[in-house]
Structure formats: C-alpha cells, structure tokens
Amino acid sequence: MNASIITSWRCVFFMILIGLTSSCLDENAKTFPWIEGEGTVQATNVSLDFDGKLLYKSSSEVHSYYAKIKDKVVEGTFEVYNFDLQGKSVSDAQGEVDSIVFEKDCKTARITGIITKGSDPTFIGKYAVWTVLDNGSTINQTSDIRYPVDVESAKYHLDGGLSLK
C-alpha cells in the first residue's frame, strides 16, 4: 500500500493547534476555523487486495485522491473503484474532499469527501472516508475508501473513530 504522501512544512505548529482544539465538519463549507498555513495529502492508483475475501461484494479496490489545505480552505478530489474476484467492476464513486484532520503524530490524516457521482445514484450526497499514514520515505499506507457513509459516520471518522485497518 505505497503511494500516500503527507506534507506540511508547519506541521508541528499545526499539531499544537489541533491538540488544543477539536475538529468539525461543516456540511456547507470546506473550512476549518483553527488551521493556518498549508498541507497536502495525495495518492495515485493505490491498489488494495482484500486477500481473496469479499468485502461488500469487493475483493479489491483502486483509488486516487489529492487534497490540500491552504488559508483555512480544503480543496481536492477522490475516486474509488471496487472489483469482484474476477476483476469485474462492482461499484465506484468520485467526489470532492470535504475535510482533512491531521493527528498529533503529524503522520496520520483522516479524510472525508462528498460523493458527487458514482455507479449507484443513491451514493450522491453521501460521504466517503479514509485514513492515510505517512511513515517517512519507506512505508506509506492508506485504508480502503469506505463509501457511502452518512454524515454522522463521517463526523465520527474525523473525530478519530475509524481505524487505518
């Protein structure tokens, strides 16, 4: 699960601020009242194999995302494609990154996005959630992109509820 990159040149300062405040998900705005400066999270064509197990009809996933925080605004996109054991597409979703929360370790980011299109029209307007871990130059990891989830689950994820696994 290589390909995730988390960068932030003022990360230590941000982590102190994050430690003193709590995150929030505003359904109508892509802003965080406590973030100053900038940071990015990105991955391209991350391929995840669920070890031959079928998770929600999927045995594998390919996803990409790019998001940045600058001047208190979050911008970015994501896309995710899931396949069955034979490699046939079973579902997909694309959308806009809505929120990023960097944890105190300055290596882990929890991300949410709003689905704007996908294989199932009922996905639109719901959320996708995932976690990224940057262990430096040797090991970078990302969880699968879980979708569609409701706003309460997305908020729970931002508050630290869903793990990397």
Instruction: Quote the distance from N terminus to C terminus.
Output: 12 Å
State the secondary-structure class: mainly beta
Biggest sheet details = 9 strands, antiparallel
Q: Low-confidence spans: pLDDT under 50, at least 5 residues?
A: 1-36
**Envelope shape:** globular
Specify Rg, calculated over alpha carbons.
Answer: 15 Å
Number of domains: 1
Instruction: Give the strand tally.
Output: 9
Order of helices and strands: EHEEEEEEEEH
Strand content: over 45%
Please, what is the average pLDDT?
75
Provide a count of the helices.
Answer: 2
> Helical content, roughly?
10-25%
Name its key features.
165 residues, mainly beta, globular, single chain, disordered N terminus
Any overview of this molecule?
- The protein has helices at 11-20, 151-158; strands at 5-7, 38-49, 60-70, 73-83, 89-102, 108-118, 127-134, 140-142, 146-149.
- By secondary structure, the chain is mainly beta.
- The protein has one domain (5-158).
- The longest helix is centred in the first third of the chain and has 10 residues, at 11-20.
- 33% of the residues are buried.
